[in-house]
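TA notes, week 10

Several of you asked for a full example with nothing omitted. So below is the full record: structure tokens for the whole chain, then the designed sequence directly under it. When grading your own attempts, check the secondary structure regions first.
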């Protein structure tokens, strides 16, 4: 084995010397060393030269193949990402709808309970007060007329009070509370709901005083408290239910004038006419005064289309 290794080393050394001798001779051509080699050695050398020349081409093809695989992988990953994003968006939308449904139900329960309670107390108060007045057989017509007249007058007067307070107070010094009504609501209630409680306090006080006392003044106070209560109930159904859809109002939404009122108040939230209208039930009249009837008709038609789709 040592002899074989030695002979191979000697052959390699002599072959290298032979090549160096030939290459140092300027009269020899570049192909002459190849001619001196055996045919098998020439074939091996030529194939190795050709393979070495083809290596860059093979390498480039291999890199292109890798880039194609990477691009396909990236496209597939993007498609999967879009599918996952759509699923997440659908899940979030479903959760949002469920949350809104629960919020509407919560507010509806609170509105129904308060409305039923206030209405029941008002009806009972009217019945027992007038029954108490006619107990002795003497019917106090003046007092009864005053109660009825002031109840109607208070209900109408509350519209003008609400318009003034809305502009001079709620959009001014009390904006930090009313602002919650002009932003997307988070939860079943908003800070602006406090104004409903504030307006209920004088109504309850007037009803209480008028119920437990006789005379013209108590009768007028009772009528005023009754009118404020009636306006508050109507305001809640039209403003909270019809306009802002915090609960369903049923056939009230199809009443033409109520639809007009709702459209006018919707323009108040767009701030197209510097907040006008500030009132509710006379809102269309306010828009007419500032030249907003065209926009009002557009909003009415938009609400009609939405209701027909729903």
């Amino acid at each position: 084995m040592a002899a074989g290794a030695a002979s191979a080393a000697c052959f390699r050394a002599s072959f290298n010397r032979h090549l160096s001798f030939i290459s140092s001779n300027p009269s020899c051509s570049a192909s002459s060393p190849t001619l001196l080699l055996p045919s098998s050695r020439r074939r091996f050398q030529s194939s190795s030269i050709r393979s070495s020349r083809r290596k860059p081409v093979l390498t480039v093809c291999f890199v292109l193949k890798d880039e194609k695989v990477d691009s396909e992988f990236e496209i597939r990953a993007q498609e999967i990402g879009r599918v996952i994003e759509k699923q997440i968006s659908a899940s979030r939308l479903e959760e949002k709808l469920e949350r809104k449904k629960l919020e509407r139900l919560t507010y509806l329960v609170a509105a129904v309970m308060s409305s039923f309670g206030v209405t029941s107390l008002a009806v009972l108060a009217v019945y027992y007060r007038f029954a108490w007045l006619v107990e002795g057989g003497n019917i106090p017509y003046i007092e009864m007329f005053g109660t009825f007249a002031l109840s109607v007058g208070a209900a109408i007067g509350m519209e003008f009070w609400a318009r003034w307070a809305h502009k001079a107070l709620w959009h001014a010094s009390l904006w930090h509370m009313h602002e919650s009504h002009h932003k997307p609501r988070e939860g079943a209630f908003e800070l602006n709901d406090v104004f409903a409680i504030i307006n209920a306090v004088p109504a309850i006080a007037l009803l209480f005083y008028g119920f437990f006392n006789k005379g013209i003044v108590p009768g007028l106070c009772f009528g005023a408290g009754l009118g404020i209560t009636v306006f508050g109930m109507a305001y809640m159904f039209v403003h909270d239910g019809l306009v802002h859809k915090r609960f369903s109002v049923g056939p009230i939404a199809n009443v033409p004038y109520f639809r007009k009122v709702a459209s006018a108040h919707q323009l108040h939230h767009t701030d197209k006419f510097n907040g006008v209208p500030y009132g509710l039930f006379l809102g269309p009249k306010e828009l007419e005064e500032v030249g907003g009837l065209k926009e009002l008709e557009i909003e009415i038609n938009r609400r009609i289309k939405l209701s027909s789709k729903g």
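Residues 39-133 form the longest helix (95 residues). Use that as a sanity check on your answer.
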